[in-house]
Amino acid sequence: MADNSELEKAIIGDFIPLAMIQAAEKEYKKKNEEGSLTDQDRFSYAWHLIKSRYKDDIKKGISIMGELCQDGTDQRDYLYFLALAYYKLEEYSEAEQCINRVLHMEPNNSQAKDLKKLVSGKIQQDNLIAAGVVGGAALVGAAAVGTLAVIGGAIVAKLISK
């Protein structure tokens, strides 16, 4: 079994060159102006955007893919790529919601299972970091209270001894 970094590389893959994204955008705009834009055209453009290295492109891809989810029939593919986009933006709870919907439709979908594993690992990692921050803050707070108690005790002892 591949470790998570290998699995992540396999799922996310390489970024699409900017020239390919621009070509897809040109085609998308042309068909939109002609009034001949299909769901497949929208999906293709959103897919290109989601495979970009740039967050603004990915966000635009999420918007288009989300629209397709609302009025499209091939929910599984739309949801999978939405989950992938959210994962790339480190929005793991949204990615988890999308990938869980895919797995609800197709429990044995190996691509979705692999992405679910990555998403779950990132959520667990974030939870551990958050717990460490909270634990560290509690430790600092306890140390501050302890220090104040010692100082307060010393002041009281000094006042009593006078």
From TrEMBL:
Gene responsible for this protein: 105313545
Domain comment, as recorded: The C-terminus is required for mitochondrial localization, while the N-terminus is necessary for mitochondrial fission.
TPR repeat intervals: 76-109
InterPro entries: Fis1 (IPR016543), Fis1_cytosol (IPR033745), Fis1_TPR_C (IPR028061), Fis1_TPR_N (IPR028058), TPR-like_helical_dom_sf (IPR011990), TPR_rpt (IPR019734)
GO cellular component: mitochondrial outer membrane; peroxisomal membrane
Chief location category: mitochondrion
PROSITE patterns for the chain: TPR (PS50005)
Function: Involved in the fragmentation of the mitochondrial network and its perinuclear clustering.
Name of the protein described by the UniProt record: Mitochondrial fission 1 protein
Keywords, comma-separated and alphabetical: Membrane, Mitochondrion, Mitochondrion outer membrane, TPR repeat, Transmembrane, Transmembrane helix
Pfam families per record: Fis1_TPR_C, Fis1_TPR_N
Transmembrane segments: 128-157
Compartments where found: Mitochondrion outer membrane
Topological category with respect to the lipid bilayer: Single-pass membrane protein
Alphabetized SMART domains for the sequence: TPR
Assigned protein family: Belongs to the FIS1 family.
UniProt-listed GO biological process terms: autophagy of mitochondrion; mitochondrial fission; peroxisome fission
Top-rank lineage group of the source organism: Eukaryota
